[in-house]
Amino acid sequence: MVTERPKIAFIHATRLAIDPIENTAKRLWPEVRTASLLDDSLESDLKEAGGLTATLHSRIADLTDYARTLNIDGILFTCSSFGDAIEEVAQRTPLPVLKPNEAMFRDALSYGERLAMIYTFEPAATGMEAEFQRLAKGSGSSASLTSVFCANALDAKRSGDIAEHDRMIRDCTQLLDGFDAILLAQFSMASAAEPSRRVTKTPVLTSPESALADLRSRIEVMQQKAVQSC
């Protein structure tokens, strides 16, 4: 559905992703209307299962179907651990449906071939690395991705100590040298972007910023086509 003021749905698997994406939307796309859907048991169920199961695929599909009842123009998933399930629903959904990191990965490839990714949620790393390699290969790039686990940062965030969370990620960033770009893997890490940018000359990319720019572009193209067809 095309609206004068676009409306998008954020689908979350953790409460920690809600504020980062909502705040980024207010800053970069103030006219957009948003709806947030949360299933905060997805993250723990994924960890317990050891990977994406048929049941988890179905739950992602159910969340997508519900989001579509809200008269939205696009969907952005904010949890980086469910890429394969999101790809499935995107293929059958007539609206833009974005995985959390695909836009950031594309942006990163434009900076060069030596890339570093800091992550704070261990189960997400393998899937994100595979997603990056598929995207790089499909783009004809030989880029490499070095993944760095920032231990205990997520625990600090969950306990409410955002300053400590941001400090840990900033310190990890400061140790990375010789890369063309540094990626902050999880949406929940967005608060550490500015502190990290202050300690390095290397571009620091975040999923919320890249994803919202991509989703906005896709929706605006759809709106223009709708106007032209009238």
Question: Can you offer a commentary on this structure?
Answer:
The chain is α/β, with parallel strands linked by helices and 230 residues long. It folds into 2 domains: 7-100 and 209-229, Rossmann fold (3-Layer(aba) Sandwich); 102-206, Rossmann fold. The chain contains 10 helices and 8 strands. It has helices at 18-28, 42-49, 54-68, 83-92, 102-109, 125-138, 153-158, 162-175, 193-197, 207-229; strands at 7-12, 33-38, 74-77, 97-98, 114-119, 144-149, 181-184, 204-206. The strands form 2 sheets. A 4-stranded parallel sheet has the order 2-1-3-4, sandwiched between helices. It has a 4-stranded parallel sheet with strand order 6-5-7-8, with helices on both faces. α5 packs across α6 (125-138). The longest helix has 23 residues, at 207-229. It starts with 6 loop residues before the first strand and ends with a helix. The mean pLDDT is 93.
